[in-house]
Amino acid sequence: MKINTNGNVYTFVYATVLVVIVAFLLAFVASALKPMQDANVARDTKNQILTSLNITGLSGEAIDKKYAEVVTSELQELGGKVFVAQVEGVTKYVLPVKGRGLWGGLWGYISVNEDKQTVYGTYFDHESETAGLGARIKERWFQEQFNGKPIFNEQGDVVLTVVKKGNSKTETEIDGVTGATLTSNGVGAMVTDGLNAYKDFLNK
Question: 101, 117, 131, 165: least buried by Cβ within 10 Å?
């Protein structure tokens, strides 16, 4: 029996078979690549945590090795997970934080010194902030402004934040990125709210 390749039934069956084959292949490829993708995500997270500890310039397996050497344990606190690290023999605590920028989500890590009163280092990243403006929160010059800054005021309130560039008046106010006021405000809120979430831990 001759198949009518111009008929609707043939077209429908052909399209269905093609879709099933493509879907199977995509599922197979995704499944095969998932372990590698998961490993890359885990390594990137480790690198972000190390960067918040002012350990930079690593890649590949060197990240895994350094992370295993530096990060000694994890704690589950009221604010969330806390990473305990040893940097040159001194204890540091790394606190994950999340927020909202102009166009999307923000996240980062804030490491604090053993006294839990001052910042040791930070790392910030974003989903979709504007290149050359809000996206600059990922640059080290911005992040390093937090190093050594106090977290609390004399009354014990979390006051570390970000303000419009040129408007910082106290040691706990960090200059934001020029031309990116809303993103800077988002980082400021993320820092203040994030540290407040860990206030009980920081006051232990």
Answer: 131
